[in-house]
Amino acid sequence: MVGIIMGSDSDLPIMQEAIDVLESMDIQIEVDIVSAHRTPEKLFDYATNAHKRGVQVIIAGAGGAAHLPGMVASMSPLPVIGVPVKSRNSIDGWDSVLSILQMPGGVPVATVALDGAKNAGILAAQIIGASDKCVLDKIIAYKEGLKLKVEKASERVKK
User: Fold this and answer.
1) Would 5 disulfide with which of 34, 79, 89, 127, CB 3.0-4.6 Å?
2) pLDDT above 80: residue 90
3) Sign of dihedral through CA atoms 124, 130, 133, 137?
4) In the 8-state DSSP scheme, what is residue 51?
5) CA 24/CA 53 separation, integer angstroms
6) Residues 6+ apart with CB under 8 A from 47
7) Which residues 6+ apart lie within 8 Å of 49 measured at CB?
8) What is the value of pTM for the model shown?
9) Helix crossing, 117-129 with 133-158: angle to 10°?
């Protein structure tokens, strides 16, 4: 199972891309809003107990100060993938990117591109696929589909 959390409901349109990818691969998900600044007790509970519920990977999306992924990573034994979200109070998204990317040694957060929730979903599936052959087969098929799209586009351009 993959846990998908975000700092506010305004992040949902971006985070929906991770939800869609994981659902397309039949990977169970749980989705919630967990604010690092407004619901710190909920953050603590989520981060320290997700693995007890069967969560294997956490995707955490946040904009603005973007402390959610790092705080979760500091308390959880699970891999955390951070999605920087460009919010309305953001400085072109760079504040979110750097808040998630610049983690101290010992507290890693795998960070995808600004608004890159789709890649976060794919990365979470790849992590699960390392020990689940069914998911691995779906990742292989997905990547083959990407290759075929490029080959078809190349053929159209050459004509």
Assistant:
1) 34
2) no
3) positive
4) G
5) 22
6) 58, 71, 72, 74, 75, 76
7) none
8) 0.94
9) 130
